[in-house]
């Protein structure tokens, strides 16, 4: 604010306009002519140059300088420089004729000079502009292949209008009004001409707003086609005519419907838009208005958007004003068809977004609605009408042209009505006043805008674009986010750091000793090779001493001893310098001798250590390879979690880390377990290790963000969530998690942006999946057609077509289509109800099941497989430009199939992930969004997920209520029945739990976690004494994913059935997978007791006690059998 005050106190800065020269001019009487230039800015004439002679080949050197002062006391001045051009008019001066007092002049052409670079910080720039011919000008007769007339203009200021700091903090808002389509049918292009105005408020400062008016709209008939390249016009062209009313090198760019931000961007609206943009009347503006905003105005705009989101853009029609204002009378500017479009400006507060464009519906203007939606009192219509009238009177004849007040033949009565209507005020009816076209008995509602209501009836919309020079909320770059993540969690080096101090010096000495020792050993072997080969090497002390002397003599005589000392010298010097820090000469001999004695002892000790590493006489026993891999350990840990044996689960996770501490996934899995047991501090350390090992680990970044959010370190959490979206920009999970985080800290606009990005990616994934299915179908059909020939091929094709038709007839009725353009393609869309039973799916084979618990991606993929349906089309809508009227893509647009609806909403995808990783805080938030989402709602999947959430929080009663709701919607949902079984199991209601589990196994489709179902159902059978069923179910669990517990169950069931051999085999399998399970050793002891194997029975019993067997009933049974057989307990 202080800098703004200093700016306002600054002296006015002169803006110099220098017209240098004009080329290729043509006069009325041939190539030679005399001309001058006239320079205007707004309604002010800055001056005229002297006459200059020129020809078609010789340029007219004007070198004319004009200027105006730019004051800084009001931001309106800089705003006007941003959108008002300097008008340069080239005038031919004809020679005087006889008896002529003044010279005659002919207007040759005009051009406009854009002053926008001055607002962008430039101090001097040169422009070469085309001189646009005026009506009746000799320039109109220039052939198309001849050079066009052009002029050189230099714009300069002594000092930049804005400082560097002001350029960084200020902004430039560019508003483009293209056209209004589907206008009311009462608007007649061939009748009386009216002015069509667009107006909206734009902040000038923290407290002031300016009224932006764009008034040069032209009503066009349906058959009046626009050129493909539409050039933008100046909003206030002043005296410009012809081509000079267009902004140089500025065109309206066609964009895809898919990237629009308006209200009519959906597939269901495209047919309507194509029709009205092709076959109905429209109002064309194609106008660009720049608005300079100082820092306080930028802050004001940001605050107002955050408060209301909606920005009012008013549309109105008014009669053409008179050429001049009547003297002595207050001028009236009646307003008709007063409407308003509510533009959602919230996307401008999205990170990195600086542009919104789209089609916005026009509604009848209503004061109460304006106040409610935008918190603004009073409209801008009256002020806009006055400004439009003033702009019209200063405008060029090309804008003024029309038939205002003139009648056409054959339409007199109709024109009279329009004239009468033009004299009446706007039809904002007062209470009790009747509408003119209504029955006299019926009273219109108070303050009803009948004309404006025609916008709603016609579904009128206006195409608007808002562009900022720089985004108000900057988006952090991926490099910056990666740097911030590295600051919070330094990456772990891939290899151990190399030490250069004392430790490295000692290690080098060890290496040199080992190297020299190996060379001495080679000398010994070569010197006594004959004795070694014959095995006649004497071992007496005299013989050993003799060999030592010979070896020493050989080393000294050959010079190798000296070479060995030299090789060892460098490492000894490094020890002296690095370990003892001795780098200077000793002062006396006593100190030197003491140091040498100490060094000698140390070197001898280290020599023995170095030799001991390479000359070991004992063969080391190789470490046996583990019998279980890390994926099995993870499966065992998840199994222990289900059984709530958290100590055993932690042991398995820690064993995985002990095998490989550099695997980020191992740390991540351990961190999710710590979240389950509510050890947030240890979970944070695990996720920190995950990210330090792999900074691109998506799930690790997300979960570390979750932990930081739980601890209310929101700045750090935001960094990690944003970094996750940069690591995988196409991840639905990452964007939705970012949105949930913003939602938790009440940043609604950022949350909306993140959810919008996730929705786009989710739809794109559905389209890609549909393409893959279609490609697979085409490939299958092609292979069937090429498999046979002649009649056999035809018969095969007929059978395939009949089969496809039968499949379509069975499956297609379960799906609905999103309203879109007409198409003959039958594309499978989302089922009519999520709660209907899914199509039957074959149970997966045992070998195809993974040992790991399915991840969220795997679960989603399996759920998508359940609803795959054959498609008879290969045309898939891509992200190409929307079909505009008259374009070559219009016919193709009519054949576009509807975009498939994703089978899972973005929130359900996140819910599945969060339930897997036990992040319950964010899971609750995601479930709330799913309930309110239009594409979600209270479905079976929602209630099942809610039940799982309640179950993890041990809220059993609430979980039961959710499951009851799920089963009401879909009584055949396997997941609901399996979780109901878990619930009954935890409640101790074993009969009901058994019924639920049995019902789950009876379904064709598998439930989510079949292994837990097998184990719990089989344990219930064991408790009930139904050992054969228990054995069969435990065997199913072993086939699916074997573990110590599943094989132990098989062993117990076989033991109870008296099948001791099978029981022993099963218990041995369990012992291999986990040799510290006390129950396994206990039952092995029982089997050995019954098979009269005393030693093995005693050993098994001893190990059972060693690993702390706590099952009192099993211990008592072992003691009873020991008493029966008379052995088995070494204590007696």
Describe the protein.
This protein is of the alpha+beta class and 1132 residues long. It contains 41 helices and 21 strands. A hairpin with a 5-residue loop joins strand 12 and strand 13 (209-214). Helix 18 runs antiparallel to helix 19 (646-659), helix 24 (732-744) packs across helix 29 (906-917) and helix 32 runs antiparallel to helix 33. The longest helix has 40 residues, at 748-787. The chain is flat. The model is unreliable at 396-444 and 800-895 (pLDDT under 50). Residues 404-423, 794-808 have a biased composition (Basic and acidic residues). One of its GO terms (biological process) is cilium movement. Residues 868-877 have a biased composition (Polar residues).
Instruction: State the major sheet.
Output: 9 strands, antiparallel
Structural class: alpha+beta
Q: What is the beta-strand fraction? A: 5-15%
Helix count, per DSSP? 41
Q: What would you call the shape? A: flat
Number of strands: 21
- Give start-end ranges of low-pLDDT stretches: 396-444, 800-895
Fraction of helical residues? 40-55%
Question: Termini, distance in Å?
Answer: 95 Å
């Amino acid at each position: 604010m202080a800098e703004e005050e200093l700016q306002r106190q600054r002296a006015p800065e002169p803006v110099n306009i220098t017209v240098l020269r004009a080329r290729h001019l043509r006069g009325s009487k041939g190539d030679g002519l005399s001309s001058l230039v006239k320079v205007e800015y707004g309604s002010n004439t800055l001056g005229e140059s002297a006459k200059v002679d020129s020809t078609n080949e010789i340029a007219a050197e004007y070198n004319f300088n004009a200027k105006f002062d730019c004051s800084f006391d009001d931001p309106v001045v800089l705003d006007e420089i941003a959108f008002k051009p300097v008008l340069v008019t080239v005038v031919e001066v004809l020679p005087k004729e006889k008896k002529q007092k003044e010279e005659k002049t002919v207007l040759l052409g005009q051009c406009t000079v854009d002053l926008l670079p001055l607002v962008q910080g430039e101090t001097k720039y040169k422009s070469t502009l085309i001189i646009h011919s005026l009506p009746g000008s000799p320039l109109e007769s220039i052939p198309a292949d001849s050079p066009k007339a052009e002029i050189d203009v230099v714009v300069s200021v002594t000092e930049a209008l804005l400082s560097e700091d002001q350029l960084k903090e200020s902004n430039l808002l560019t508003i483009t009004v293209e056209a209004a389509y589907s206008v009311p049918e009462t608007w007649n292009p061939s009748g009386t001409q009216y002015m069509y105005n667009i107006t909206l408020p734009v902040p000038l400062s923290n407290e002031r707003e300016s009224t932006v008016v764009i008034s040069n709209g032209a009503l066009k008939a349906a058959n009046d086609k626009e050129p493909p390249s539409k050039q933008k016009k100046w909003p206030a062209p002043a005296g410009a005519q012809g081509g000079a009313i267009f902004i140089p090198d500025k065109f309206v760019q066609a964009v895809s419907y898919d990237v629009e931000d308006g209200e009519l961007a959906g597939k269901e609206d495209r047919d309507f838009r194509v029709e009205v943009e092709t076959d109905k009347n429209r109002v064309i503006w194609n106008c660009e208005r720049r608005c300079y905003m100082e820092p306080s105005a930028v802050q004001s705009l940001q605050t107002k958007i955050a408060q209301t989101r909606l920005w009012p853009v008013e549309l109105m029609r008014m009669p053409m004003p008179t050429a001049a204002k009547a003297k002595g009378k207050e001028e009236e500017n009646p307003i008709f068809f007063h409407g308003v479009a509510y533009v959602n400006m919230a996307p401008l507060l999205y990170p990195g977004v600086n542009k919104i464009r789209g089609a916005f519906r026009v509604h009848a203007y209503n004061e109460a609605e304006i106040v409610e939606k935008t918190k603004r009192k009073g409209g801008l219509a009256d002020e806009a009408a006055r400004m439009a009238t003033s702009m019209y009177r200063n405008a060029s004849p090309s804008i003024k042209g029309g038939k205002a007040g003139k009648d056409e033949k054959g339409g007199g009565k109709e024109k009279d009505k329009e004239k009468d209507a033009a004299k009446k005020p706007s039809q904002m009816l007062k209470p009790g006043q009747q509408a003119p076209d209504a029955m006299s008995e019926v009273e219109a509602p108070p303050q009803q805008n009948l004309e404006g209501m025609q916008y709603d009836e016609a579904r009128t919309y206006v195409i608007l674009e808002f562009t900022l020079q720089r985004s108000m909320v900057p988006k952090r770059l991926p490099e910056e986010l990666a740097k911030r993540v590295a600051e919070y969690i330094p990456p772990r080096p891939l290899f151990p750091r190399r030490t250069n101090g004392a430790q490295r010096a000692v290690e080098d000495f060890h290496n040199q000793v080992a190297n020299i020792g190996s060379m001495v050993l080679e000398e010994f072997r070569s010197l006594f090779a004959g004795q070694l080969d014959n095995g006649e090497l004497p071992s007496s002390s005299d013989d050993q001493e003799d060999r030592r002397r010979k070896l020493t003599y050989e080393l000294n005589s050959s010079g190798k001893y000296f070479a060995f000392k030299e090789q060892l010298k460098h490492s000894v010097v490094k020890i002296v310098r690095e370990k003892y820090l001795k780098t200077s000469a000793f002062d006396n001999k006593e100190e030197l001798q003491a140091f040498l004695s100490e060094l000698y002892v140390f070197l001898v000790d280290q020599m023995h250590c170095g030799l001991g590493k390479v000359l070991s006489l004992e063969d080391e026993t190789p470490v046996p390879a583990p019998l279980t891999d890390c994926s099995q350990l993870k499966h065992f840990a998840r199994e222990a979690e289900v059984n709530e044996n958290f100590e055993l689960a932690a042991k398995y996770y820690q064993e995985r880390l002990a095998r490989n501490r550099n695997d980020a996934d191992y740390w991540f899995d351990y961190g999710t377990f710590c979240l389950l047991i509510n050890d947030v501090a240890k979970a944070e350390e695990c996720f920190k290790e995950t990210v330090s090992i792999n900074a691109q680990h998506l799930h690790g970044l997300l979960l570390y963000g979750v932990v930081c959010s739980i601890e209310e370190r929101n700045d750090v959490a935001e960094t990690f969530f944003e970094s996750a979206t940069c690591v995988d920009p196409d991840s639905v999970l990452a964007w939705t998690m970012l949105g949930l985080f913003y939602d938790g800290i009440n940043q609604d606009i950022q949350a909306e942006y993140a959810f919008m990005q996730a929705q786009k990616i989710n739809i794109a994934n559905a389209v890609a999946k549909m393409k893959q299915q279609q490609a697979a179908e085409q490939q299958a059909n092609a292979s069937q057609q090429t498999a046979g020939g002649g009649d056999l091929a035809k018969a095969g094709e007929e059978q395939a077509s009949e089969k496809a038709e039968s499949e379509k007839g069975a499956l297609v009725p379960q799906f609905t289509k999103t309203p879109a353009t007409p198409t003959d393609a039958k594309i499978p869309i989302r089922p009519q109800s999520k709660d209907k039973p899914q199509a039957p799916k074959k149970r997966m084979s045992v070998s195809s099941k993974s040992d790991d618990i399915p991840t969220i991606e795997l679960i989603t993929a399996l759920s998508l497989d359940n609803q795959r349906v054959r498609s008879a089309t290969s045309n898939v809508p891509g992200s190409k430009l929307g079909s505009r009227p008259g374009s070559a893509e219009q016919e193709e647009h009519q054949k576009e199939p509807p975009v498939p609806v994703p089978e899972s909403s973005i929130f359900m995808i996140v819910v599945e992930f969060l339930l897997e990783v036990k992040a319950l805080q964010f899971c609750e938030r995601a479930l709330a969004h799913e309930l309110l989402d239009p594409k979600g709602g209270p479905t079976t999947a929602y209630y099942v997920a809610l039940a799982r959430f309640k179950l993890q929080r041990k809220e059993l009663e609430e979980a039961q209520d959710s499951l009851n709701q799920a089963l009401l919607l879909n009584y055949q949902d396997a997941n609901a029945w399996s979780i109901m079984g878990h619930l009954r199991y935890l409640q101790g209601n074993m009969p009901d739990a058994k019924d639920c589990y049995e019902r789950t196994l009876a379904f064709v489709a598998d439930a989510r976690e079949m292994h837990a179902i097998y184990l719990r159902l089989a344990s219930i059978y064991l408790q009930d004494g139904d050992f054969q069923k228990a054995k069969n179910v435990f065997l199913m669990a072993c086939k699916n994913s074997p573990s110590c517990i599943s094989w132990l169950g098989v062993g117990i069931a076989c033991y109870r059935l008296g099948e001791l051999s099978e029981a022993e085999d099963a218990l041995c399998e369990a012992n291999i997978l986990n040799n510290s399970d006390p129950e396994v050793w206990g039952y092995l002891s029982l089997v050995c007791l019954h098979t009269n194997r005393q030693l093995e029975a005693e050993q098994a019993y001893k190990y059972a006690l060693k690993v702390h067997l706590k099952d009192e009933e099993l211990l008592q049974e072992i003691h009873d059998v020991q008493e029966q057989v008379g052995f088995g307990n070494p204590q007696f």
